[in-house]
C-alpha cells in the first residue's frame, strides 16, 4: 500500500484490492457458522492501520473489545416533581468481538437508553446502577474511546463524501502518517462502505441536492470506522431506509463485525433478511429483558415459552408483536368502535393480552437456561482482565486539527450560499439604500443629525443583520457536538478555526459594503477616516458573530437563539448613546454597566469622532459662524473628545476576543458543568421526594396504628 501511494489511481486500486481481500476474508469467516466469533482476528488492513498507525503498537496481545453488563438499572428523574421512572431494570448481557448484537424492542422499551448506558452517554437526569465491563475492567468510554453512530446524520452538506471522510481522517490520524497512507485508508473505507459510486457527490443541504438517506447513513458509519474502533455502537442504523438499503447497511456492519470488531446496534423493525444477519439478540420490553441469546435461537425460545412464531410470519415481527403492549390498546379501540371482528385462531396472542404475554415471556426468560448462560458468560468475562482499550479519539496534533478544521470550515462557508454570500448581497443592497438616502450628506446644519442617524443605523441595524447567520451556526454546532462526543478533536481548535475561517468573508462583506457606503454618503474624507470606518464595521459585525456563536453553543434551537440574540442586541442598541444621549441614560444599570458592555456604544462613540471631528458645519443661519465638529461632539452627542477614537476601536477588538473566549467557556460549561449541575439538581429532587414520602409515611403510620388499636378496644368492649 505504501508503494501504491505514489500515485492517486494506483493508491485507490491498492486500497480497493486490500479491502476486497478483507471483505473476502470476512465473507469466508461468515460462511463458517460461528467461526468468526470463535476467532476474532483482525484482517491485515485493520491490523496494520489500527495497531501501528493509531499509536497502539505498544499494546500487547488481544486488542478486541469484550463488553459485559450486569444488573444494569437506569432510573430517570422526571421534571421538577422529583418523580422517577425506571427505564432499564436489572439487565445482564454481553457482546463479543466478531459479532453483531441487535437491541430490539417496541418504541420506548429502552433500546437507546441501553446503548447510551453501555457507551457512557446517559443524559444528566439518568442514574445508572450495575456494572459495565470492557475486557473485564470497569468501562470508561466517554469522548471517543468507542465509536457511536447516532440516529441523525449530522454532516456538512456542502462537502462531497470523499472530502467528508478525508477531512475526518486528517483530523484524527497522526501527523506523521504519510499523506498517501491516509488517503489509502480513506479510499479503503469508501470501498468498505460501498460508497464508490457517490464518492464525489455532495452530501446535500437545503439548496444542494445530494446523496440518498441510505448513503448518508453509510457516510456516518464510515466516519466512525475510519479509526478502526474495536467497539461500535449504532443507534437505529437502518431507520428510515428501504429494505435494500437496510440490508446493505446491516451486511456492511456484519462485515465490520467479522473483522474482529464488537458491534452493538439498536434496530427498530428489521426485515427477515436483515434479522438473519444478527448474531445475538437482546429483546427488551418496558426496560426488562425478554430474551438475550443467539438470534438464531430466539424462535425456539418463543416456542418453548408458548408463543411459537406462526408460519409465514417474519420472526422479528412476531417477537415485537408479543412484547408490544400497545397492541392491547389498539385492539380495545378497534373492538370498541366495532370496526373489526376478531376471529378465533390458534395464535395464543389472540387469547391473552399482550401485557400478559410479556409478563409470561419475561418470567420464562428469568428461569430459562438462556438467562443462566448469560450470567455465567458475564461472570467469566468479568474474571478475565484484558487490554485496556481507551485509546480512542484523535491522534492528530493541535496544529493539524486547527488547520484541517479551518480549511473544512472555509470550504463549507464558501460553498454554502446561505452562509455568507446571501448576506453579502443583502448588505450591498441595504448599503445602496443607505447610500441613496444619505447621498452626499455634506456639512449643512441638517447634516449634523443626518450623520449621527446614518452612523447609528449602520452600527445598529446593519450589524444586527449578522443574526441571519445563526441557522448556519446551529448546523456547525450540531456537527461539532457529534464529532466532539466521538472525540474527533478538541474545543480550542474548533473555536480558533471558526474564527479564522469566517474572517475573510467578514472582511469582504464589511469592506465591500463599508466602502460603498463611505463613498456614497461621502463621510469624512481621508484614508485614515475610511480605514477607521470599515475597521469599526468589521469589528462590530465580528462581535455580533461571536455573540451569536456563543448563543448557539448554549441554545441550539435556531428560533430561540435568534429571539435571544435579537433581544440582547436590541438592549445594547438602546444604550448606544443615540436613542438616549449618554449623559441622560439612567446611571444605575443602564449607563453603568450596560452602555459600557454594549459594543454599539463604543462603535458609535468612535465613528462620531471619526466623522465629525475636524469638520466645520453650517449654522442654522448662514450669517452665524460655522460650528466646529468638536463642539457638536461635546454638546450635541455628549462625546468625550479627549478619548482617542482608536481606543474605542481597540475596545471593540478586545470584545471580539472576549466573546470568543465566552464561546469557548460556554462550550466547556455545556460539556462539563451543565450535565453535572443538572444531575445534581435531579438527584436533590429525587432525594427530597423520597424524604417527603418517608415523612408522610411516618406521620400516617401512628394514626393507622391508633385506628387499629381503637378498633380492637371497641371490639373487646362490645363483643
Ligand atoms: N433522560 C430521560 N429523561 C426522561 N425520560 C427518559 C430519558 N431517557 C429515556 N427516557 C424514557 O425512557 C423510555 C425509553 O426511552 P428510549 O429512548 O431508550 O426508548 P427506545 O426503545 O429507544 O425508543 P424508540 O425506539 O422510540 O427510540 C421512554 O419512555 C423515554 O421517554
From TrEMBL:
Q: Pfam family of this protein, just one?
A: ABC2_membrane
Q: Where in the cell is it found?
A: Membrane
Which is a GO BP term held by this UniProt record? response to salt stress
> What topology in the membrane does the UniProt record assign?
Multi-pass membrane protein
The regions listed as transmembrane in this protein's record are 420-441, 453-474, 494-519, 531-552, 558-581, 646-667
What Gene Ontology molecular function terms does this protein carry? ABC-type transporter activity; ATP binding; ATP hydrolysis activity
The Gene Ontology CC terms held by the record are: membrane
Keyword flag Protein transport: no
Under Gene3D superfamilies, the record lists: P-loop containing nucleotide triphosphate hydrolases
- Family, similarity comment: Belongs to the ABC transporter superfamily. ABCG family. Eye pigment precursor importer (TC 3.A.1.204) subfamily.
Q: What is this protein called?
A: ABC transporter domain-containing protein
Amino acid at each position: 500500500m505504501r508503494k501504491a501511494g505514489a500515485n492517486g489511481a494506483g493508491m485507490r486500486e491498492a486500497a480497493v484490492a486490500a479491502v476486497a481481500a478483507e471483505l473476502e476474508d470476512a465473507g469466508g469467516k461468515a460462511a463458517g457458522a460461528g467461526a468468526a466469533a470463535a476467532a476474532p482476528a483482525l484482517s491485515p488492513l485493520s491490523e496494520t492501520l489500527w495497531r501501528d498507525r493509531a499509536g497502539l503498537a505498544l499494546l500487547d496481545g488481544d486488542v478486541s473489545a469484550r463488553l459485559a453488563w450486569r444488573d444494569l438499572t437506569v432510573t430517570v428523574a422526571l421534571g421538577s416533581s422529583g418523580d422517577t421512572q425506571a427505564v432499564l431494570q436489572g439487565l445482564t448481557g454481553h457482546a463479543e468481538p466478531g459479532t453483531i448484537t441487535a437491541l430490539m424492542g417496541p418504541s420506548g422499551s429502552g433500546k437507546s437508553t441501553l446503548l447510551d448506558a453501555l457507551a457512557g452517554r446517559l443524559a444528566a437526569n439518568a442514574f445508572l446502577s450495575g456494572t459495565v465491563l470492557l475486557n473485564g475492567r470497569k468501562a470508561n468510554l466517554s469522548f471517543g474511546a468507542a465509536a457511536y453512530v447516532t440516529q441523525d446524520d449530522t454532516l456538512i452538506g456542502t462537502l462531497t463524501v470523499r472530502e467528508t471522510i478525508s477531512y475526518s481522517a486528517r483530523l484524527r490520524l497522526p501527523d506523521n502518517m504519510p499523506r498517501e497512507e491516509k488517503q489509502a485508508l480513506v479510499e479503503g473505507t469508501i470501498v468498505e462502505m460501498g460508497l464508490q459510486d457517490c464518492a464525489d457527490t455532495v452530501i446535500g443541504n437545503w439548496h444542494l441536492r445530494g446523496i440518498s438517506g441510505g448513503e448518508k447513513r453509510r457516510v456516518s458509519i464510515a466516519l466512525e470506522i475510519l479509526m478502526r474502533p474495536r467497539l461500535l455502537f449504532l443507534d437505529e442504523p437502518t431507520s428510515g431506509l428501504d429494505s435494500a438499503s437496510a440490508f446493505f447497511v446491516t451486511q456492511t456492519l456484519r462485515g465490520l463485525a467479522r473483522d474482529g470488531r464488537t458491534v452493538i446496534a439498536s434496530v427498530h423493525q428489521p426485515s427477515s433478511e436483515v434479522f438473519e444477519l444478527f448474531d445475538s439478540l437482546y429483546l427488551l420490553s418496558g426496560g426488562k429483558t425478554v430474551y438475550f441469546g443467539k438470534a438464531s435461537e430466539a424462535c425456539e425460545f418463543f416456542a418453548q415459552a408458548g408463543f411459537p412464531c406462526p408460519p409465514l410470519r417474519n420472526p422479528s415481527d412476531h417477537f415485537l408483536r408479543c412484547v408490544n403492549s400497545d397492541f392491547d390498546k389498539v385492539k380495545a379501540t378497534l373492538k370498541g368502535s366495532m370496526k373489526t371482528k376478531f376471529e378465533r385462531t390458534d395464535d395464543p396472542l389472540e387469547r391473552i393480552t399482550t401485557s400478559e404475554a410479556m409478563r409470561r415471556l419475561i418470567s420464562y426468560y428469568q428461569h430459562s437456561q438462556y438467562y443462566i448462560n448469560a450470567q455465567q458468560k458475564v461472570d467469566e468475562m468479568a474474571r478475565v482482565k484484558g487490554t485496556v482499550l481507551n485509546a480512542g479519539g484523535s491522534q492528530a496534533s493541535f496544529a493539524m486539527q486547527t488547520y484541517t478544521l479551518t480549511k473544512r470550515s472555509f470550504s463549507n462557508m464558501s460553498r454554502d450560499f446561505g452562509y455568507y454570500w446571501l448576506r453579502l448581497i443583502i448588505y450591498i443592497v441595504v448599503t445602496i439604500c443607505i447610500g441613496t438616502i444619505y447621498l452626499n450628506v455634506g456639512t449643512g446644519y441638517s447634516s449634523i443629525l443626518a450623520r449621527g442617524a446614518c452612523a447609528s443605523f449602520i452600527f445598529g441595524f446593519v450589524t444586527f443583520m449578522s443574526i441571519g447567520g445563526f441557522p448556519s451556526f446551529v448546523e456547525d454546532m450540531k456537527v461539532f457536538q457529534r464529532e466532539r462526543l466521538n472525540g474527533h478533536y478538541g474545543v480550542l481548535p474548533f473555536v480558533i478555526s471558526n474564527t479564522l475561517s469566517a474572517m475573510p468573508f467578514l472582511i469582504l462583506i464589511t469592506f465591500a459594503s463599508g466602502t460603498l457606503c463611505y463613498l456614497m454618503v461621502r463621510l469624512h474624507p481621508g484614508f485614515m477616516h475610511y480605514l477607521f470606518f470599515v475597521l469599526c464595521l468589521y469589528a462590530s459585525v465580528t462581535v455580533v458573530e461571536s455573540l451569536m456563536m456563543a448563543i448557539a453553543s448554549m441554545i441550539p434551537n435556531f428560533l430561540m437563539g435568534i429571539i435571544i440574540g435579537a433581544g440582547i442586541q436590541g438592549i445594547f442598541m438602546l444604550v448606544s448613546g443615540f436613542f438616549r444621549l449618554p449623559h441622560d441614560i439612567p446611571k444605575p444599570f443602564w449607563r453603568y454597566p450596560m452602555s459600557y458592555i454594549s459594543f454599539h456604544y463604543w462603535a458609535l462613540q468612535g465613528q462620531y469622532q471619526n466623522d465629525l471631528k475636524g469638520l466645520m458645519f453650517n449654522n442654522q443661519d448662514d450669517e452665524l459662524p460655522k460650528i466646529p465638529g468638536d463642539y457638536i461632539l461635546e454638546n450635541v452627542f455628549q462625546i468625550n473628545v479627549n478619548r482617542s477614537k482608536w481606543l474605542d476601536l481597540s475596545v471593540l477588538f478586545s470584545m471580539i476576543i472576549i466573546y470568543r473566549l465566552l464561546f469557548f467557556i460556554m462550550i466547556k460549561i455545556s460539556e462539563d458543568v451543565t450535565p453535572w449541575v443538572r444531575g445534581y439538581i435531579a438527584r436533590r429532587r429525587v432525594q427530597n421526594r423520597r424524604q417527603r414520602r418517608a415523612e408522610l409515611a411516618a406521620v400516617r403510620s401512628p394514626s393507622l396504628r391508633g385506628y387499629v388499636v381503637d378498633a380492637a378496644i371497641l371490639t373487646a368492649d362490645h363483643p
